[in-house]
Amino acid sequence: MVKVLVTNDDGIDVHGLTILVEALAQHADVYVVAPKEQQSGKSHSITFMREVTPEERDVKGAVAAWVLDGTPADCVMWAIDYLKDELGVTPDYVISGINLGYNSGLAAYYSGTIAGAREGAINNIRSIALSAGSHKASHFDYMLGMLPQLMEMSDRISPRTILNVNAPDLPSWDIKGVRICEAAPRGYGVRFGFHKTESGNYQMTGGPDFTDDKMRYDIDWNDAGYVAITPLPTSLADPVALMRLKGQTSRNECLTVIVGAQQKMLGRLKKADRFEKRITKLTHAVSRMGVPVLLTEEGGLGEMLPELASYAGEAEKVEHVHPDAWTSPDMEKVVSSVDVERVLIAGAASNIELLQTALGFIERGYEVTVIEDCCAASKKKDHAVAMKDLEEAGCRISTLETEVMQLAASCSKQVLDSVKNILFT
Length: 425
Fold this sequence. Notes:
This protein is an alpha/beta fold and about 425 residues long. Helix content is about 35%, strand content about 25%. The protein contains 16 helices and 17 strands. The chain has helices spanning about 15-25, 70-85, 105-110, 110-120, 140-145, 145-155, 220-225, 240-250, 265, 270-290, 305-310, 330-335, 355-365, 380-395, 400-410, 415-425, and strands spanning about 5, 30-35, 55, 65-70, 95-100, 125-130, 160-165, 175-180, 190-195, 200-210, 225-235, 255-260, 295-300, 315-320, 340-345, 365-375, 395-400. It has a 9-stranded mixed beta sheet with strand order 3-4-2-1-5-6-7-11-8, with helices on both faces. Strands 14-13-12-15-16-17 form a 6-stranded parallel beta sheet. A two-stranded antiparallel ribbon has the order 9-10. The model has no long low-confidence stretch (mean pLDDT about 90).
């Protein structure tokens, strides 16, 4: 069965956690590690300067449960190691909640509930944070009924991205639906700050703030009676800033785009071994020259190829659900941040993912070169048709050695020699 680790920030005895465990226990093996005391607003703090003590507890529906005198991040960190070392169990999911009160908008920075999920995500475990829209919430049926759907949604994206789910405290029949949306920025919907009390001291409070009628953010949809689901990344880098700086410092006026070079894609490709070798050489060579690299990854196809990953540490990623990478809202933002007119593109599923993504570059006015011998499809005929279609659409069709050596022409002798070694050995 699927194995789920449950935590929260309100403590192990609260109603939101107990009903979550009971619901999950119907289709999963559930393990619980939760804080001994209230930890709301502790964000991702950890207990670094003292010992923590786990105590076994009975939680209805759980295979095993412990309470820990630490933070939500402590609970998940301890649980991952303990379950693996002592029980031989690795959770498939971390689910944090159900929190009493929204964790939408700016609250995502401060929330212990979200921190519990984040700790799971940074350990490469698919993670979900659940919050209900009242500190006295009593309506959980709709959110509990969504659990299988939420786990399926998590399966379609990177395990390093959290699903932050906020549901109104309304009966199921009054909830209007579900919306995937952005988290509201600072100064929108709610504002946190210190206010002076009658004693002369200061206490943190939150209050309503400006909203508009454009229905862009989680706060908007919650107020309108919808469940809001926001994917929250765990990356510590700003991809747009990285790409812009790399574009400014690169000695080459192009961007290299690698499409769908993922582990589960290999089984679908003709001559997969050759494709993996060639696409890895391309990534290694352009990275060595300082050319900005963008990886597009379709949800559900696994991690990038392991050989390629070792040379793509500085590459930026765009994750998308549909085959065309341009369906991701991040694609336009990341690509436009690099001041280039020329794009080199290669990758898997040349007749589907690569074709659609390359045509998206053409439509936006980029000069596109397809590295034909670094592309692959499931059938030779499909690959040939895709190359013809791309050439007719205005793409230039070239080869690995031709394009890389042209790029290397302006490099130092040291870099040139390194690139030659990559290509020809």
